[in-house]
Amino acid sequence: MTRRIVGMVLALLLMAPVMASAQDDKKPAGGDPSMEQMMAEWAKYATPGAQHKLMGKQLGKWTVTTKVWMDPSALPAESKGTCEVTSMLGGRFFRSDYKGDMMGQPYEGIAISGYDIYKKMYVGTWIDNMGTMMMTFTGTCNADGSECTYKASFDDPAMKVTKGVREVCRWTGADTWVLDWYETVPGQPEHKTMEISHVRVK
Predict the structure, then answer these.
(1) Rounded CA gap, 89 and 65, in Å?
(2) Domains of the chain
(3) How far apart are CA 118 and CA 134, in angstroms?
(4) What predicted TM-score, i.e. pTM, was given to this entire model?
(5) Which candidate among 18, 78, 122, 159 keeps its CA 20 to 30 Å from the CA of 89?
């Protein structure tokens, strides 16, 4: 019943501009699109495509090893955890739930990722229990989806600066992939601050 109601509401919203202009039967060429045209466009951009299929390779459960560099010249702190990736909304989006520890504290993080067909770009968000911010990512992948690069930014409350982020996800085998995290502080060169290695649980 809920799906039917949502569908009816969406249909009414889509029909509104058409109904409002329906009185003008002599609309010039190149005017507003017909309802059929609008519905066809919505269907084209709402249907999961090849990019979503490539992202589906991450579905499942993973063990993760995280390395964090607080000081680029020092050895990284290492911790263990898990990640479970599930499909959302008919394969249009993917949710990654991370759990483990970070610098001796319980850690949880959630990523939502997808591909915006209209904008032709990969998109994502990140939240965790180590802050109250939400990060928003946009990125690109190579043709076979074996390597993707995302960019974002976040405010560092300790340093009182906005840092740039470059995240590189690369497959290193059929059941292994690595997330490399790089940060940029204004006026300083980029440096790697985190690496998360994933191994599929079979």
Answers:
(1) 29
(2) 2-46 (no CATH), 52-200 (2.40.128.20)
(3) 23
(4) 0.81
(5) 18
